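pasting input
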Amino acid sequence: WLFGRLLSGCTLNVGGRRFPFTADLVTHLPLSRLSRLNRCASESELLEFCDDYDRETNELFFDRHSDAFSFIVAYAQHGALRLAPSMCELSFLNELLYWGLDSAELQTCCQRRLDQRMNDCYVHFFPECRFSDYGLYYQKDQYGGRDFGNKCQGWMETIRRTFEEPTSSLAAQVLATLSVIFVIISMVVLCTSTLPDWQSLGAAQQGDRRSHRSVPSGLVESICIGWFTAECTLRFLVSYDKCEFVRRPLNVIDILAIAPYYISVLVSFLTGEDSELQRAGVMLRVLRMMRIFWLIKLARHFLGLQTLGLTLRRCYREMLTLLVFVGVAMAIFSAWAQLLEYGLDPVPEASDWASIPSACWWVIISMTTVGYGDMYPVTVAGRVLGGVCVVSGIVLLALPITFIYHSFVQCYHELKFQSSRDHAGLCSE
Amino acid sequence: WLFGRLLSGCTLNVGGRRFPFTADLVTHLPLSRLSRLNRCASESELLEFCDDYDRETNELFFDRHSDAFSFIVAYAQHGALRLAPSMCELSFLNELLYWGLDSAELQTCCQRRLDQRMNDCYVHFFPECRFSDYGLYYQKDQYGGRDFGNKCQGWMETIRRTFEEPTSSLAAQVLATLSVIFVIISMVVLCTSTLPDWQSLGAAQQGDRRSHRSVPSGLVESICIGWFTAECTLRFLVSYDKCEFVRRPLNVIDILAIAPYYISVLVSFLTGEDSELQRAGVMLRVLRMMRIFWLIKLARHFLGLQTLGLTLRRCYREMLTLLVFVGVAMAIFSAWAQLLEYGLDPVPEASDWASIPSACWWVIISMTTVGYGDMYPVTVAGRVLGGVCVVSGIVLLALPITFIYHSFVQCYHELKFQSSRDHAGLCSE
Amino acid sequence: WLFGRLLSGCTLNVGGRRFPFTADLVTHLPLSRLSRLNRCASESELLEFCDDYDRETNELFFDRHSDAFSFIVAYAQHGALRLAPSMCELSFLNELLYWGLDSAELQTCCQRRLDQRMNDCYVHFFPECRFSDYGLYYQKDQYGGRDFGNKCQGWMETIRRTFEEPTSSLAAQVLATLSVIFVIISMVVLCTSTLPDWQSLGAAQQGDRRSHRSVPSGLVESICIGWFTAECTLRFLVSYDKCEFVRRPLNVIDILAIAPYYISVLVSFLTGEDSELQRAGVMLRVLRMMRIFWLIKLARHFLGLQTLGLTLRRCYREMLTLLVFVGVAMAIFSAWAQLLEYGLDPVPEASDWASIPSACWWVIISMTTVGYGDMYPVTVAGRVLGGVCVVSGIVLLALPITFIYHSFVQCYHELKFQSSRDHAGLCSE
Amino acid sequence: WLFGRLLSGCTLNVGGRRFPFTADLVTHLPLSRLSRLNRCASESELLEFCDDYDRETNELFFDRHSDAFSFIVAYAQHGALRLAPSMCELSFLNELLYWGLDSAELQTCCQRRLDQRMNDCYVHFFPECRFSDYGLYYQKDQYGGRDFGNKCQGWMETIRRTFEEPTSSLAAQVLATLSVIFVIISMVVLCTSTLPDWQSLGAAQQGDRRSHRSVPSGLVESICIGWFTAECTLRFLVSYDKCEFVRRPLNVIDILAIAPYYISVLVSFLTGEDSELQRAGVMLRVLRMMRIFWLIKLARHFLGLQTLGLTLRRCYREMLTLLVFVGVAMAIFSAWAQLLEYGLDPVPEASDWASIPSACWWVIISMTTVGYGDMYPVTVAGRVLGGVCVVSGIVLLALPITFIYHSFVQCYHELKFQSSRDHAGLCSE
């Protein structure tokens, strides 16, 4: 304590700049490193808290950023702690923590800027968090260091990499290309199978209109299903963590897209080819259409779709806002439109406007400025309401979308950056 | 004065940096702290204006920011006062005020930047202003410190918090959830009551088409109304300032949404169930539809809707601009369209285009790019005008909306920040 | 010369920082102030180029910004002149000019930033340029200082201010309000005069359908015209520069809006009330509709409309780009659409698509996403082209509009700033 | 080595600021300039690595930026290398390279900022890269220095400049104007030739409807074709590199636009004027319509169109994303819409919805909010899907377009800057 008091007349040399060490400073910043200095009983204890001490000039040396310290001194004098504009926000935070302050003591506006900055940088400083955040790829960093003792595991690792990392080897690229081709083929078959000409051709070949599938399209379908099943099974077998595997969104979609085929085959088998069930089988047609979600498998290979997925995950709050806006506006405008166009009419004729739910269709088509023209107001009051509805629709829809844009741009840059780093890492191996 | 003149050869030490104290400096900055220094008669008087004075080195010490002072010195020399880029704008303003200058002496562009910055930060530095600005929540900071002497007031305070702050306790959360559920139920009943099937069902039950309400929906309606009335009354009773309570927008909406039910019940009671009035009662239907505004009660619980409300309040000027743009464009285009499509036709047939107000409908539907297709120009001149109208509509509508976007983003961040702070405050209690 | 050589070993003290004065520096910056220093023959000559010279320490003093000079020294050493980030760009330019360099020696990217900055600030530093730039208001600064010797001119000045500056006095505000009311009344009369009910009413009063004007609307029209004529004449009489007055856009619109009435009255007078000419008088109806442009007179009183006007003036280049984009896209898409929908059809039936100009109507309505539904492609090739046309329309139209937005925001802030300054100036008078 | 060790106690003077030269510094930055200093055996060797050495004060002088070095010292101490905020990012990179570090050692966020900055500036620092990047103009800088020995080449150079640089001389401007006029004339002829009145006129003149070209339009067409052929041939003859010339996009368009005329003339000649082929000649009509691409020749003279071209080249990745988004959304929504509107209907009647490809037309027209109204869902499920489709269409389309906007703005500024520099260069010659 005695020694500490002697110190109070000394100077602090922070990064080459000298600051007088006044009792004032210690009083105003009670919890910081300086107050501990003051309590030091000996020189050796002192050196735990500073980098050097020059007894002659009575000077304490700190190898820290001088600008940051001058802002902290200003804080002690004027009571407002602000970010030093000439420093990186994160460096400044480091300095604050070193001197025993934390970010809560910053002015509100500076604190907000620091938060913003930390959000921006988070994914780059802790990339493993990002990986687990959207789980599109496997965390190779985490498991890469494992010791695969036997040959079998080495093989599994090779297969895993071939399937999960399209750029890891030539075989992986061929596999990825094949996968994309199979998706596209199955989509083309699905689309063409609904064309009238194709259907009549298939019907002619089979002699009746019993089935929507002609023979060749049925064959192609089976091959695609076979491929996807094999791919999905293999990827499941070689994955490290089976439990985590089935929870990944892209894998869930895989299963949802493959399962219906087997269910419909099973139903056909159980009920017989010509049973009543299959003819009018609404459920079977719906199941069959689930196959369209195979398209989302393309997300494995296109940066744009991955970005979209990540954006949707991050913007669920903004999506909800969009939904609430549209919902509230739809309810209010449709109720009033129904009243003005139908309810106030002594002899209501416009049967399109008879109920609020059917007026909702008009509202959503007008707010989004689509305007098919199947419904439109004809009364003067209804038209005024229509104008207000359209203009407020433009404003309302655009507001939350602005947020989604910003998030999309951010996600895109992140994924692009990571992808280019992965590539670079691959090349340097 | 003599002493002051001696001073003129001394140096100013501002935040560790030395500046020569020339008469020149004083001449150019006549109203500032320095000129007062110059007029000091003794050293004790001098110390009122500076932090320290070293007689030996003839040096005046100021514990202020050296960068800011160097900019002020530059002002004295070159006549242009600019913001120091390496400082927070608000800190710099503090320094200016200390030295006896004010922001009006800044260069115009710097002044604009300072204004902008102050606008950005205003709500954070003076949060109480913000609260009263949009009045969605009660000013707890202002009244929180009050001394509630008796138990009764303590109870009222608890009830008030339960109703006004959805996150304050478990009971408050249950209440908020119940409130949202009641709003949704009443909306669903309102919508379904207009469905033809439902109406015929209700009519079948009652034997005639006299009433639009079937028995169960009438019951649900009564329960909802009862709940809302009770909630509104309680909140009114426990509010601090009754006068301020009824002026808050959300409460006004509450009253507007509840009152019509009682009015219609009253009218029914006065005129009798089967009276002529009620059958064709246009006013009653309108009053009934007022209930749709209950939806706006959701704003209490959704950040997005609060943001929208705050945005609308702040952007009333931009809204007006949007209105003026649309109005002027509508008048000009509809007048010319009517002339080209109807007025110049020797034998006018297109009765849709007969008057300017009906042409307005076409203009608003075209400018917003809805395009129902119920009206469209057929003459060549009319089509050219139509193209111009559509393109200028896209430009005109988007211009003021850009401002509304920016305001929305700003409002969203503010409310989010405050909400997270409220939560944090709650947790730390 | 000899003296100069002695100098070469001295130091430069710029704003308190010392720089060695090497021959190297002079060699690399041959045209600057320093080389002139070097050529000085005596100390007195030397003091013309620097602020002070200390013979003892052989030091030259300059009261300039030390950071800027250190960047200039860096330029001499490394050959790249960059803006000092810690300074205002305009201050830095001042320093450059002082030392005898100009902005052309800056690195290209810094030069661009400086240009941008100067563009941003231009209007604020030279407000008189801005005034003459869009000419909505009279340049009071320029003429304000004139000496109006006699009372008559003082009166004229008062009237001029009353008419031109709506906020200058109570009388001016009343005048402005009256003017807005007259515009709105005349617009309402113009609109209602086309309503069928009103027309039949007017016709009933006059016994035939000869005139579109009923008696009361004719009266209101005359009063409005009288007011506008009087206002315009007075403003012309009290204006300083008659020639400049008639070239201002808002005055041109005034004249264009008033003149048609007198022309039509003249024509009626010359040809007689019942002449053949007036009955089918196409030109008269067109002239009458010119009156709609009175609405633009509102621009005098609404900041939003002034902003729009200024934006249109500044963005004529972007408007042209928009026009060229729309024109080129319209030509290409309409030609191909006509070919695909009509030209390739062996038995062409779709008469809507018969010619390229009529296909243009479809293209503009599709590109702007209006989609009335009066024309749409039916062939597969036409629909593919339609999809491409719509998507490229969205992209093409939005690109130049982005620029117009930015310009609008800029103009809005400028006018708002000026308007608030005018108000402030008025209050402080 | 011995000498190096003595050095370890000395100080480094970087740009006037002193730093202690500790062994610590060398240990942490092993590959840098400092470690080489440490290995120097003599003073002369030392001076290769620093600017000066003062034996007395044991001080090493470096004429470098002191701020940058202080950041490098901070790196050695705290292990995080960050950009100095008070310096231009590119200057800082220069400093890093001087001291023997490279940009890979920067923190990730700073590295990203540096990359961004370098991308922004790249085109300005290496203008020749930009030229070859989009190849609209010839690289005059590259070839400008060539020695054209004989007069013939001088002439060719003059002609080349006249054609390729519209602003280079009066003749060039006349040529450019003529070229634009010819393009516009040929477009007008092409458009009017499809007008019914014009066709009947032409048919009347020729006595039958054999040809779509009337005599005068045929003549104008031949003149235009002649002009374009001559221009294209001349420009080919005087170009330096014939191979590069035919690969430039604008020249490819030229050839594609001219060739069809000669092919059709050739076909007419071979098959005879009245042959069956020409009458129904679908291919000939398609070839004829290729002429519309002459419009793209205007890109030579309009900055806006050049910007568009450059944007499309740079944004091919974003365009692809847009395509993938639209494609995936179209497939999913059209499949489900077909199912809901047609597939689930026991007695399908809506023949518009019979196949997925025809439902695609509805999806693209709805997602872009055009909404012609030729197809719209009528079932409740279909309408819900329609609402989702429209809202997601608005979001999906806008996301990649945001990127295209930013790129367009960037391209526009670059081309404008270059164009103004070219003009300035021309004037100063």
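fyi The first strand of chain C starts at residue 11 and ends at 14.
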